[in-house]
Amino acid sequence: MRKFFKILAISALFSMPLASPVAAQDGQVKITNSVKIEQVSQSDSGEPQVKLVDPDVFIPGGRLIFVTDYQNDGAEPATNFVVTNPLHSAVRLADDADPDLTVSADGGTVWGKLSELTVSSEDGSTVAASHDDVTHIRWTLAEVAPGASGRIKYPVIIR
Amino acid sequence: MKRTKQLLGAVSATALIALSASPAMAVGTTAGDTITNTVSVDFQVGGVDQTAATASDTFTVDRKVNLTVVETDSATTQVSPGELQAVTTFEITNLSNDVVDFDLSVAQPTTDDYDVTNVQIYLDDGDGVFDAGDTLITYLDEIPEDATVTVFVVGDVPLGQTTGDVAEVVLTADSHAGGGAGSLGTELVATTGANTAGVDTVLADGAGDTDAANDGAFSDTDSYTVSAADVTAVKTSSIISDPVNGTTNPKAIPGAVIEYCIAVSNSTGSATATGVDVTDSLPGDVTYLSAFGIFVDGTVDGSGVCQADGTSGGAYDSGAGEVTGTLSDIDGGVTRTLYFRATIN
Fold it and tell me: B160-206 pLDDT, tens per residue?
C-alpha cells in the first residue's frame, strides 16, 4: 500500500505540465519556483514601490527575477538547509545582483562570493570571474523552524 | 500504465536539455527555446539527511524582432544621364533571435530633383558587386539570426538630367515570419496582452529614415547624383606664313597658310566625356593643306593658345570639304584640341 502511494506521487510529478510551477511533494519542505519581473510604481506618498509581477515577454536582454519560495510544513526544524540553483545556460546573473551571493563559476566545485572567484580565460590565463561566468547560486540557512517560510530571489538577464 | 507515464516524463526532460544546450547567438537565445530554472533544497531533520526537495519553472523565449538597413557604398552614386541599371548598395542585418523573411520596397521621395525609372532589387551572389550572378527579388527569404545580406537597388537615369541633380531612393525592409522557404511569410506584428505559453512577438527595431521604431521595419536612403559632361568647343585660327613675308609677321593674303585649331573643353567637376567627334566644314575660300595633315589630342596653354603637341589622326573628306577627328576621353577640367592647316585661295 505504501509503495503504491509512492509510485503515484512520482508519476504525478512527472506528468505535471512544465510551464507551471512544480512543488516538491516529497517530505516536509515545500518549495515553489516562479519567474517574475520588477514593476516600479509610485506609492501615494511618492515613494517608488517595487512589485513582482508576471512577465509579458521573454526576449533576449530581458531582465527577470527568479524567485524561490520555501516553507517547512513539518513538525521538526529543518537544519543545514541548502538551496542550490544551477543557472540555465541561456540566462546570466544580472550585474546588479547582491554581491554577497554565494556562487560558483565552475559548475559547482568552487563556491564563494563572485569577487573571490576566478575562471580560465581563452588564452589559459586566470582572470576574475564575472557575472557572465556564474553557473550556480547557493543559499545556506542554518535552520528553518517548523511552519517557517521564506523567499529568495535574484535577477537574471536572458542571453 | 504508470510506468509508461514515467518514461514519457523522462523523454521530454531529455529533449528539453538538448534544446537548451544550443549556444546563445550574438542576438540572443533563439525564439522558441525553453528555459527551465530548477532549484533543489538539501536539508536535515534531527541531524538526518532528507530527500532533496526540487522545483522548476519553465518559460519559452519569445521572438524579438530587430533589423537594420544600411546603405554601404559611397554616400551617393555618380550617374550619367541615360545610364541604365545604376546601382546603390544596401546591407540588411537580421538582429532578431529567429529566422525572418524581409519584404523589400523602394520609395522615391518627391522632395528631390528627379526619379530613376525601372527600379529593381537584386540579391548579391556574395561578391559584393552587381553582376550577372545576382538574383532579382522582392523579398529576402529565410534570413538566419545574425546574418547580413547585401542587396542592390538599380534604376535607370532619364536623359536630360543635368549635373548635380539628385534622385533619392529609400529601401525599406519589413519583417515577416520565416519558416516557409520559398515564400514570404505573414507580416510579424507585436503580440498584445499577457504572455502566452507559445512564442510571442516583440518588435524591438529602431526608427529608420522613413519608418518608426518598434514597427518591424527599417529603412535607409541612398541617392543617385547626376554628373554630366559639360563640353564646349572654341575654334581659333592663326596665320603661319604668306608668300611675301614668309613666317615673319605673315598677312592673310592669297597663298598664305592658316592653321585652324578646335579646342574642346570639359568643365571642371563634370563627368568624363567619351567618344568626342570633331567635325569642321572648311570655308570655300581656303584649301585643305594635305602636306601638313590633321593632329588630334593636342593641348592649350594657360591663355588658350593651341600647342603643336598633338598626334597625327583624323581625316579629310574632300567631297564634303570636312575635317573630322575623334578625341580621346576628356576628363572634367581638361581641354583637347584638333588642328590642321589650309591655304587661302
Answer: 888 889 999 999 999 999 988 999 999 999 998 888 888 999 999 99
Cβ–Cβ gap B59/A57 under 8 Å? no
Interior angle at CA A16, CA A15 and CA A20, nearest 5? 160
Domains defined along chain A, listed by start: 23-158 (2.60.40)
Could A83 and B55 be called an inter-chain contact, meaning their C-beta atoms sit closer than 8 Å? no
Top pLDDT among B2 and B121 is at B121
- Residues A21, B57: contact at Cβ < 8 Å? yes
Q: Which of residues 39-58 of A touch B (CB under 8 A)?
A: 54-58
Residues in B touching A146 (Cβ below 8 Å) = none
Q: Where in chain B is the domain with CATH 2.60.40.10?
A: 65-226
Please state, for a pLDDT cut of 90, what percent of chain A lies above it: 65
Neighbouring residues of B118: CB distance < 8 A, sequence distance ≥ 6: B155, B156
Q: Chain A contact for B38, CB < 8 A?
A: yes
Confirm or reject contact between A28 and chain B (CB < 8 A): yes
SS3 B207: coil
Burial class (CB in 10 A: 0-12, 13-18, 19+), A56: middle
What are the backbone dihedrals phi and psi of residue B5, each rounded to the nearest 5 degrees, phi first?
A: -60, -40
pLDDT at A98 over 60: yes
Record: contact A86-B38, CB cut-off 8 A: yes
CB-CB neighbors (< 8 A) of B61 in chain A:
58-60, 90, 158
Rounded Cα gap, residues B171 and A125, in angstroms: 47
Q: Could you give the percent of chain B with pLDDT greater than 70?
A: 92
From chain A, pick out residues whose CB is under 8 angstroms from the CB of B12. 18
Give the HSE-up count for residue B293: Cα atoms under 13 Å, Cβ half-sphere.
Answer: 8
Span B231-344 CATH architecture: Sandwich (2.60)
Q: Is A35 on the interface with B (CB under 8 A)?
A: yes
Q: Which residues from A are below 8 Å from B23, CB to CB?
A: 89
Question: Is the predicted pLDDT of residue A49 greater than 90, yes or no?
Answer: no
Query: A29 and B41: CB-CB below 8 Å?
Result: yes
DSSP assignment string, B130-150: -STT-EEESEEEEEPTT-EEE
Chain B residues near residue A19 by CB distance under 8 angstroms = 58-60, 197
Tell me if residue B8 falls in helix, strand or coil: helix
- Strands B217-226 and B166-177, sheet pairing: antiparallel
Which CATH topology does B65-226 take? Answer: Immunoglobulin-like (2.60.40)
By DSSP bridging, strand B217-226 and strand B77-79 are parallel
Where does CATH 2.60.40.1170 sit in chain B?
A: 231-344
How near does any CA of chain A get to the CA of B331, in Å?
Answer: 54
Spatial separation of the C-alpha atoms in residues B80 and B272, rounded to whole Å: 10
Residue with cell 541548502: A82
